Amino acid sequence: MEKEILEQGLNHNRRKFLSRLSLGIGSVALGSLLIPDLFTGKQEAEDGLMLALPHFAPKAKRIIYLFQNGAPSQLETFDYKPLLVKNFGEELPESIRGGQRLTGMTSGQSSFPLVGSYFPFQQYGESRAWISSLFPHISGVVNDLLIVKSMHTEAINHDPALTFFQTGAQVGNRPSMGSWLSYGLGSENANLPAFCVLLSRGKGNGQGVYSKLWSNGFLDATHQGVQFSNSEDPVLYLKDPQGMSREQRRKMIDQISVMNELNYKEFNDPQITAKVQQYEMAYRMQTAVPEITDTSREPDSVVKLYGPDCLVPGTYAANCLLARKLSESGVRFVQLYHQGWDAHDNLPNQMIGQAKDVDQSTAGLITDLKQRGLLDETLIIWGGEFGRTNYCQGKIQLDNYGRDHHPRAFSIFMAGGGVKSGMVYGETDEFGYNITENPVHVHDFQATVMNLMGIDHEKLTYKHLGRRYRLTDVHGKVVKDLIA
Amino acid sequence: MPKILRIIPLLENLLFFWLGLALVLSLAGERLEIPPVLQVMGRTHPLLLHFPIVLLLIAVGLFWVAEGKLKTAAGQLLLAGANLTGVTVVAGLLLAAEEYGGEALVWHQWLGLISLGLSILIYFYRNESARFLKLSTLTLAVAITLTGHFGANLTHGEDFLLAPIQSKETEFVAMEDAEVFRHLVQPILEAKCIACHKEGKIKGELRMDEIAGLQKGGKTGPFVVPGDLNESLLIQRINLPKDNEEHMPPKNKAQLTEQELEILQLWVASGASLEQKVTELKQEEPLFRFASEKFTVEKTYTFKSASESDIKSLNNFFRKVSPVYPGFPALEVSYFGTSAFDPSSLRDLKKISGQTVKLNLNRMPLGGVDMGFLKDFENLEELQLNFTGIRGGQLTVLSRLENLKNLAISGNELGDGAVTELGKLKNLKRLFFWQSGLDDNQQEELKKALPQTIIDFGFSGKGLLYELNAPKIGIEAAIFKDSIELKLSHPIRSTDIRYTLDGTVPDSSASPKYSPGIWIKTSTEIRARAFAQDWIGSDEATVSVFKSGIKAKEVSLRKDPIPRYKANGSITLIDGIKGKANHTSGEWLGYQLTPLEAEIDLDTGQRPIELTLSLLYHESAHIFTPEKVNIWLYTGTGWDKVPTEIPSQPTKIRETRFGLLKYPLPEKEFSRIKIEVIPVSKLPAWHPGAGSKGWVFMDEILLN
Prior knowledge:
- The structure holds two protein chains of two kinds.
- By secondary structure, chain A is an alpha/beta fold.
- Helices cover 35% and strands 17% of the residues of chain A.
- In chain A, strand 2 (121-124) and strand 3 (129-132) form a beta hairpin.
- Chain A is globular, with a radius of gyration of 27 Å.
- Chain B folds into five domains: 3-163; 180-294, no CATH class; 308-456, Ribonuclease Inhibitor (Leucine-rich repeat, LRR (right-handed beta-alpha superhelix), Alpha-Beta Horseshoe), CATH 3.80.10.10; 479-546; 552-703, Jelly Rolls (Sandwich), CATH 2.60.120.
- Chain B has 15 helices and 28 strands.
- Chains A and B meet through helix 10, helix 11 and helix 13 of A and helix 12, strand 7 and strand 10 of B.
């Protein structure tokens, strides 16, 4: 018995253990050969080694996103529904609404009378797109437009819907689209931020915009959107104070960098390096920005193109002009917000004002980029966070009515940057309530935009709190039909 | 001897049966007529073949290593294996008569027969000599392997085995070279159809591995009828339900994806052309869409990449050099920062002149710069020179750039010679030519010289009349002591600003034109408008300025204002600050229930001759002109009342505005002034708040 125990012990000697172990390791190694990115791929992405490179040939290099904050009505702009005019005041059939949830603003309404557009529609361009009389200039550039009438979203109120559009999630704290692109593609012009934000506000009922919409979320702080002030001095505190020369400024920044470097060595906080980079960026912006914001050298015809308002700081038109100047100077993503589209009541009146703000300058921006040969590489996006209901909110009159929020179908348009031009995509039912053809979800839109920029939306990820995040979360399909 | 072994002699005999049958069937060849029942048997071939392979190979292995009893077992295995080989060979021969043919079949068939023969031979001579046994079993193993390999080729296609490790040349087909049939359709046929429809296995008598075969069609009809989806067998078969026997590809084979199915249908519908190029399709056509997904729009480049270190060294804050596509040799170069531009840095680009396909010099001051460096940029396709101040004479070098497709040269006063130089660029596809200082004749001339080029002359704004926006008055409503400088500006520099100080509306001829250096010395309303050629005159901009020549020593309030509108208390009235046009700005004293009563102490020697009340009017907020103003002067002995006019009341609601009430003061000695400003006691009947008490808002008492 004892002998057996001894033998058992001897059998399990170190040599035997090692030799068996080596076999085991060998098999693991062999198996791992079949998992190519086991030791490399993901590491690389996280180290940012593969970044600053598109995943495939980009069609667009830059984006100007003209966000119409508050949600313009699709039924008064691009989604022509004669039935609503014909059946004015009649009840929205329950079969169409299909028990969809409503906002607290109309859920208490006892009736949902259909209301048609106060504004007449006409067909324009090769695509014979229907556009209302609110947009005389935009209808003039219709051959450059790709109108998508079948957008839909999940959110029903402004804040979540906006946040969803911009960050891919309804809750805050995720990086904005511009931040993702800055992270993925880097800056073209090292003297300017890759992501700039311009705000303006129309006279219509407004909804807030907040810095979380251009937040870098968990990405490095250098990817945050830089908000320009809507005053004559778009970037505040850019001038050196009196008595401070460029050389002194340089010395000062160098000294701060040395100190920050020491701090970084001690705490290893990446925010410190981000800060150093931002000081450097601000220093370079001191020369780069004045060149861009100086509109005095714009020819008269440009002013006529965007409308005279483009020289009044803080207007949408001025922001369009500034957006072009930033974009042509290599800013990847210029995000505009124009507030005032939330027409729950007095819609025709409000829309006249809002449309007047944006019509000429939006069309002007497209024409301007085109005549400089830049439209092909610049993607323009125009649209709000959702649509508006086909039934009236509040009192109903032919020329005075309101519309509530409608996430199920709405219209946006894009131009340039590798999207098809002169095309209308998607269709809604004759009530303009549900999509009947080619729906495009917000995540699909985001995936498509990233695709145009040369990024595979499934590959651009960032690991945070133990999981990988991307702009489109776990959804999104590139809508190839939209790509030229 | 166990009972089971009694069948051995039977099996031994059976071997010769298979051999004979196999020989007969092989020699009969084409003349065979297989009844359906036997066809079924033939089709069991792919199932059966696995058994003999396994049994024979085990037997071979045992013969090589085993001794004694095991060797006996090996013999029995061999016997069983040989019999199954027989069955398989026979089934195979029946199957071969169906629709197979070609070289692979010949090899497979005869190697199969040899395997059968060999296994029988080995079985009967296995005990003769060890050397024979080893040699013959080895040969058998090789024969079985080869048979299997050729069989697999028949079923799965040539090179099935080695395909994964054979270098696949992923063909980078550029959009402009792509052909519909060759690059879109044929790859599908190759992937999903050809295995059964090719030389060697011409199922249904249809060969898809050569164009002639497609044109000839198959047993039941033509492969495709151009333009006719219903008559085309290809389309019929692929659209049959999957369980239908005629469905193609057969149920157990890899199926067409939806996209592939659609491509094939679109191809047939569009005429099943064998030559059409993708670029000949219209953009809206779905086929074009499929093609654009598949082929790189980017041109493929054959030149060598520039060195990594060169690219790196050329990148700095003001110049970006990067590949147009990761891994592509082609580079694009962009310059940024007008003030930092150094023309000599253009010469650095020589290192990458062969690889640069796109160069962006927009807004870099290039006037007078020698553009000769461009001559080496043989692959340059796109050049952007907008707003660079370049002149026509600097463009001579462009004619040497044979690959130049896009030229953006907007915003330059090109001058003479430009048309001649640009007219030489026959390969140009697009020319962006907005604001280039050429007259209509020159533009026409250029169009004629470049018939193939799309020229964008852009937006001139000619003939469009817009209204200018109002000029900006650089001073806000202000109170001044002696004088104030008039500052007017307009963002469009070509405008004239005309102004008036006498309350009249400025016009484009009579009113004075603004130039800096004008000083205002009295209270007045500044009105200004902007005018320019090709524009409609602007709206008015107006600002009122107030002269307060005498600053009182002190002022005290006898009655407190409404607490929300108490501003800074009494001092508000003489602080020299003009309130904004908003009663909640904190610069206005507001009274409603009681009159505003104030006493003003003058310094010795101050002799005002006019007292002005600076008020705010805003009817919709119930802010009205006072109902009555009373003024008293303290002459040392008592209060003397000054006669005052009753102010006229508004008759409708107007926008928020400033108001002044002026009262002349008599020429006599006084040291204090007392005023009483009484709000409207009842708002007039036309007002929505008719009957309620009105408000008075005042921000300053002006003495002159």
